[in-house]
Amino acid sequence: MRLMVLLLLVGASAGAARSFDWRAHPALAQDRPAAQPERRYLYVALPGSDDADPDRSVRILVFDIAEGHRFVRRIPLWPAGQDAEVVRGTAASARAGRVYISTTRRLAAIDLKSDAVVWERSYEAHCCDRLAVSPDGQTIYAPAFGSAKWYVIHAATGDLRSVIGVIGWPRETIYAPNGRHAYLAAWDSPILSVSDTSSHRVVKTVGPFSASLCPVTLNAKGTLAFANVDGLVGFEVGDLQTGLILDRVAVEDYDKDAAAAYECPSHGIALTPDGRELWVADGVRNRLHVFDATVYPPAALTAVALSAQPRWLAFSMDGRYAYSSTGDIIDTAARKIIGALENPVGTKVKSENFVEIDVVDGAPVR
């Protein structure tokens, strides 16, 4: 029976004009492999800069989102060394089939099917902060850790292709959805730099913002940048077309003196996938503030209290969950904590670096 199926499929491909209709052959349909359901996984990289876990090895923990964020497996990468090695960023490409991890010491590509390290590199004896990979999976923009530059890297091999000089301490990278520009945010600088990804040169700047840039997010249209800035619990808005600063939105009743004691008192900002809400971290009062982004400027709606100081946040791709660096899992519709990421021994997992990867039959699809 299986030989007959194989011959029929070969004949269909030779014709190249029609596909085989399983409905017309019910006996053969019984041998057709069942389609595998899509699985959604959250990859969490450790250790982070605020991670108190005594296990200082570099590793990735994988959680099954649809199964209540159940722990699935541990991907060991590098053992703990004499000098602390801290994870600074993660990114992934379904097209390349890889997840990328940057630490203070190295940048590496990990195959999503085998969990094997495909390549690892250091640049000038150290490495990188929060990186981004191009939509086509071919190029990585990685902020140098401790140097005022961005590395432009060939994603397939890790080879260095170019270097972009900037002012400040490089921190965060965002690739435009169309791949034409990369947005480079550096702390100790009030300027958001925009690089042309064909020439790898800064062709535009946004700002100056009122203070050093902290985390930044962009709207889906690529017209606005919402940025945390030093000294502010809230955000400022930059126009990506004109480069001008449009608005400054502060959380109500925040204590400016208390905020001044923190480097980036709001260190985390993200739009829900549908673009309807803007969530902003409050590291002074340990909460996430929710703003209505369907109006301009975004208007405050409510706040979600957290278990500790948030230093980063992101959403699941369907927008159902918000993830905080505190390890809390938040139901975005109910706006309340519904659980926590936990390792196999029940310890809460705290990290600033997480990325959702969806797979079918073991292959990444988004």
Give a short overview:
The protein is mainly β and 366 residues long. Helix content is 6%, strand content 44%.
If you had to describe this structure to a student in words, what would you say it looks like?
- The chain is mainly β and 366 residues long.
- It is 6% helix and 44% strand.
- The protein has helices at residues 2-15, 26-29, 256-260; strands at 39-46, 58-64, 70-78, 87-93, 98-103, 107-111, 117-121, 132-133, 139-143, 149-154, 160-165, 169-175, 181-187, 192-196, 201-206, 213-218, 224-229, 234-239, 245-250, 269-271, 277-282, 287-292, 299-305, 313-315, 321-324, 328-331, 336-340, 354-360, 363-364.
- The strands form seven sheets. It has a five-stranded antiparallel sheet with strand order 3-2-1-28-29, with no helix packed on it. It has a four-stranded antiparallel sheet with strand order 4-5-6-7, with no helix packed on it.
- The protein is globular and about 50 Å long.
